[in-house]
Design goal:
The protein is α+β, with helices and mostly antiparallel strands.
Length: 138
């Protein structure tokens, strides 16, 4: 009887720990993010070459790219200047330093990889070459 009780307590404890940690990356992603233009351009040498004559303009353009993730309501909005898009998402995967969200509207999967707690690289599964680096808005 004692072994069964101990096993039940251990199982309950393990499940509680798993539940607590299941949304850690989603919770970390919660909030406002702004594109880190220099880091994003560093990922795309071809884009750097195209904007070599006007690097300040390219940085200003990328810096206008913003994102908000609401982990409680599972909604996201992305804007660039006056143009914005928002929608709901479903968490597909949340493990290690990666989070995968499926956008409810078009079913595209959005990958979010944490470099640090305040820096993420985001890309769409449909276009993995379009990586954008975001920094937490302060």
């Amino acid at each position: 009887m004692r072994k069964v009780l101990l096993a039940s307590l251990l199982l309950t404890f393990a499940l509680a720990l798993a539940a607590c940690g299941s949304s850690s990356n989603l919770d970390k992603a919660n909030g406002d993010w702004v594109c880190d233009a220099k880091a994003t351009l560093a990922l795309h040498p071809d884009l750097q070459a195209q904007t070599a004559g006007a690097p300040e303009m390219a940085e200003a353009l990328f810096s206008a790219f913003k994102m908000n993730i609401n982990s409680k309501d599972k909604k996201m909005s992305v804007s660039m200047g006056q143009v914005s898009e928002s929608g709901a998402f479903t968490v597909v995967s949340d493990s290690g330093k990666s989070l995968v969200l499926e956008m409810d509207k078009d079913k595209d999967k959005l990958h979010i990889d944490f470099t640090t707690d305040d820096s993420i690289t985001v890309y769409s599964e449909s276009d993995a070459n379009s990586k954008i680096v975001f920094a937490r808005k302060k």
